[in-house]
Amino acid sequence: QNVIFKYDLKSRNWSIVTTSPIPRHDARMLATHEALYILGGYDPLDDTPLPLKESYKFLFRDEKWIPLPPMMHARSLHAAVVFNNMVLVIGGKDEENKILSSIERYDAFKNRWEEYIPLPEPRMAMGVVACRDTLWVAGGITSVGDNITLVDSVWCFEANRGNWFKTFKLPKPLAFPTLLCDGGQLMCVGGAVRVKKGETYILESVEDVYRFDDKKEMKWKKGALMPLKCHNAVASISGI
Q1: Which SMART domains is this protein grouped with (predicted)?
Q2: Which of 101, 189, 236, 239 gets the most CB atoms within 10 Å of its CB?
Q3: Taking Cα atoms as reference points, which of 154, 189, 182, 156 lies closest to residue 170?
């Protein structure tokens, strides 16, 4: 039904914010203080759904949707994040099923998309978070089809350095992990692993939670398991 809800942490009540202007699967949504963004994805009502360049912005003050200029690349299974006061879309796959390394930045003043410093390697279905002035990209998929490849590598980008660098790997290759920043500490929640079922490989959700210990051992440490296995989940840190 394309309904978008919000949850009030104080009243513990859900309420309707708006409805999405279009149906979307595998899109990415993010919010700033001024607006809510729906970026890329594909239309599930299409006979042959393909990743799209379309994106929209909902202005909280005016309570209305406005279409944004098309992104430079069609994307689904990508990531979106606010980093260094910029809205970024990262990686994903395009309408030709090609996995992307490109990153785009939305310039709200000029109302246009611009190329940003790309990932060192193509990546989709990865976890992304901005934490301590650093952009983190962890896990994901680097090839699709019969030889689908999951990775455990973690890339970091610092705006003042202006380049990507590798850091400590995840404990295992993961697709669709959720990255969180908890008081300056990095967390990795859920995800999916590649397992063999019969003659084929499938992705299977996990319940693992890891925290990156950068003060003592400089490694990912396993925490309490989630009650359910999940991947591609939405999660946040709350002080309440």
Answers
A1: Kelch
A2: 189
A3: 154
